[in-house]
Amino acid sequence: LAKTTQPISMDSYEGQEVNITCSHNNIATNDYITWYQQFPSQGPRFIIQGYKTKVTNEVASLFIPADRKSSTLSLPRVSLSDTAVYYCLVGNTGTASKLTFGTGTRLQVTL
Amino acid sequence: DVKVTQSSRYLVKRTGEKVFLECVQDMDHENMFWYRQDPGLGLRLIYFSYDVKMKEKGDIPEGYSVSREKKERFSLILESASTNQTSMYLCASSLGGLNQPQHFGDGTRLSIL
């Protein structure tokens, strides 16, 4: 089972770029890396997913080095509304018994 | 938009009771999941189902069972509730196959007294 490790918390000012790293040393060949965002009293919400190299969408980028033992979620120019908990998930829904969420990173954005 | 609905936001039960948590999704997804979320432990998979009447154990299935009689509905059952099952329970669904994003409900906060 791929164990994932994330920083417990991060602080940022509005307008800065935030990078959150997740370590997953035991990632398997078929595993994907997925990031979710969670606000209080809500379920997690999908942000971005990748297998290797770099993926970008309208809200974030995901950087995955060649060895795939870590990944970095990059949030450009954060705003107050990005204050949330961010989880990385390693695995794939085809073999869901091996899905492993990180313990989450609490991002606090201030003015 | 995919909607995953959990029947209760808050639930209070007593030790030893049989507890049912219900989850319904409206997007014809093949996969459905039950997680529990505890402070400092993140989300841990209890059970998942990839088809009607099919189920597989996740990381922490002890003390739980599940039922999936219809594609859109996935039930989590606490056979005999205990205080250590006090937690936030999250249901999710996804399309079948690999690397499909999961869509989560807003959770049921269950307290066992």
List the helices and strands and how they pair.
The complex is a heterodimer of chains A (111) and B (113).
Chain A: E1 9-13, E2 18-23, E3 32-38, E4 45-50, E5 53-56, E6 61-64, E7 70-75, E8 84-91, E9 100-101, E10 105-110
Parallel strand pairs in A: 1-10
Antiparallel strand pairs in A: 2-7, 3-4, 3-8, 5-6, 6-7, 8-9, 8-10
Chain B: E1 4-6, E2 10-13, E3 19-25, E4 31-38, E5 42-49, E6 56-57, E7 64-70, E8 73-78, E9 87-94, E10 103-104, E11 108-112
Parallel strand pairs in B: 2-11
Antiparallel strand pairs in B: 1-3, 3-8, 4-5, 4-9, 5-6, 7-8, 9-10, 9-11
Can you give a write-up of this model?
The complex is a heterodimer of chains A (111) and B (113). Chain A is mostly beta strands and 111 residues long. Chain A is 0% helix and 49% strand. Chain A is built from no helices and 10 strands. In chain A, the strands form 2 sheets. In chain A, strands 1, 3, 4, 8, 9 and 10 form a 6-stranded mixed β-sheet that branches. A 4-stranded antiparallel β-sheet of chain A has the order 2-7-6-5, with no helix packed on it. Chain A is globular and about 40 Å long. The model of chain A has no long low-confidence stretch (mean pLDDT 91). Chain B is an all-beta fold and 113 residues long. Chain B contains no helices and 11 strands. In chain B, the strands form 2 sheets. In chain B, strands 2, 4, 5, 6, 9, 10 and 11 form a 7-stranded mixed β-sheet that branches. In chain B, strands 1-3-8-7 form a 4-stranded antiparallel β-sheet, with no helix packed on it. In chain B, a hairpin with a 6-residue loop joins strand 5 (42-49) and strand 6. The model of chain B has no long low-confidence stretch (mean pLDDT 93). Chain A binds chain B through residues 1, 30, 32, 34, 36, 41-46, 49, 51, 87, 92-94, 96-97, 99-104, and chain B through 4, 31, 33, 35, 40-45, 48, 50, 56-59, 90, 92, 94-107.
